[in-house]
Amino acid sequence: MFVSDNSLNAVKQYFNERLNSIFSERELKLMFQLSAEKRLNLSPSDLFLGTDIRLSESDLLFFRSIVKRLQAGEPFQYIHGDTEFYGLLLKTDARALIPRPETEELVDWILQDDSSKWTDVLDVCTGSGCIALALKSKLPQTNVIGVDISDDALSLSRENASFTKLSVTFSKKDALVDSLFERENSLDIIVSNPPYVLDQEKELMKSHVLDFEPHLALFVADQTPFLFYDAIASQAQSCLKVGGWLYFEINEQFGHEMIDLMKRYGFKSVELKEDLQGKSRMIRGQK
Length: 287
Prior knowledge:
By secondary structure, the chain is α/β, with parallel strands linked by helices. The protein is 41% helix and 20% strand. It has two domains: 8-72; 94-286, 3-Layer(aba) Sandwich (Rossmann fold). Strand 1 and strand 2 form a beta hairpin.
């Protein structure tokens, strides 16, 4: 037995004591709450009042497993198996990057535009499908397509489409090689959160990202930081309708360079936007 008794309070104390050197009090509270809700089917009020709740041996082993995996650096979102993104509950595992708050801000920025007449939207490097599915949830009449080179990511994005009951088409495309969309002058929006972290930035990243999240979706060579942006912007000029928009999530250190890149490919009304942390994280331009 790894706790003094099988009460919920004893398990919570064990959880906090083993992990308080790694996570904040707020993080621990949320992780334990989500784990207990999922495993024990308890509401937040049950957790607050449940001093007499007793756990089975398998329940105790479940919480011990979570603690060990967190101590090993595995992201909680992968352990838990799902996360919330723009009001949707999405499955999460090592097949794709964990959806992040700054990407929610990108979705929100897109939806602030006049979307009432949009018919076609393309999400390049879709990963878990979070952007495509979030847009579809708010634009049910719009045709939304997500493309990615990773078979693993596409399997997860399709599961998320089924899980959320949202009709989004996901297909395999290499953004650096393949034609992203067959019809010219037909897309209202192209959006992409491509790999943009430089190899040299690896030493600055936390181990739970480096050790568990797919490097294919994260990194580009130091010598070619704009590899994906060049390829996508080039195709966007032919695929977008006149007046259509290209949106990117970007590396914060290259805001000015991305403005130049967008203008070089003929985009107008180019706008750089900061995220809630004050980092230059998004850019858009109009055909």
